[in-house]
Amino acid sequence: MRLLRLIVRRMPGIDHPFELGEEELSEGLTLIVGANATGKSSICRAVQALLWPGSYSETPISVEAHWEREGRRLSATREGAATHWQLEGQDCSAPDLPSQEIAAAYTLNQLEVIRRGQGHAEQMIVEKLRLQAAGGYSVEDLLSRHFQRPMHYAKAEKLAFLSARKAQDSVRQAQAQLGRRVEELEGLSSQQKEAALARDRVAALETARDLLAAREQLEERRQSLAAYPAGMEALSGDEYEQLRTARERTSGFRQQLSALDQEIESVEARIEEL
Description:
By secondary structure, the chain is an alpha+beta fold. The protein is built from six helices and six strands; from the N terminus they run ββαββββααααα. A six-stranded antiparallel beta sheet has the order 2-1-3-4-5-6, covered by helices on one side. A hairpin with a 7-residue loop joins β1 and β2. α2 (about 110-115) runs antiparallel to α3. It starts with a strand and ends with a helix.
């Protein structure tokens, strides 16, 4: 794969977006030089973040690159943690690449150059790199001439370092304790949800129990009604009142009959007298 174009819109340490096109990226070896903090390492990190997304987790990030692969144009875009690949403008999966574990084998940083320098030429390159990295100043020379401190300074710095280490350990312990507390709270939250579900299940069971009891009572009432004689359904409920009224009317009729009997007897008596 030959890199044709690289667009860096947003990355940590990049204040202004920039782009490298085919004019800057040659078919052979491309050498990029510049002062410190001008984005040289960011170019490598941008390419690495596209090829091996898992090896780069810093945010925010917005980069895009285009390659030529076997005569076809392959492109990749990364926005945050999401990486999108296209082949000739059509969506595709990421190409087969070496595993992320050996991604670092494809880069050579300044520190490795310094550590590997053995001969006179290599040593001279090392010194040049160190001088350029220090902004044109020899760090060793500055330390030897301007920053030689008495021994008590070293003791004070050691005490300050130990104090800072102790404070760091305290912060880590507090962070671990907070993490355990968060886990406990998550466990309590899970228990609370389970308790709420159990409460709902109990309420549903109680409702089902009450419904079953009501159905049993209804069935008992139906059986009791079935034991009554036939025709009970015709009763209206005011039969007692009707019976009382009938008895009163019967008593009235009897009184009328008694009066008529007396009148008949009186008439018969007068007829006999005649």
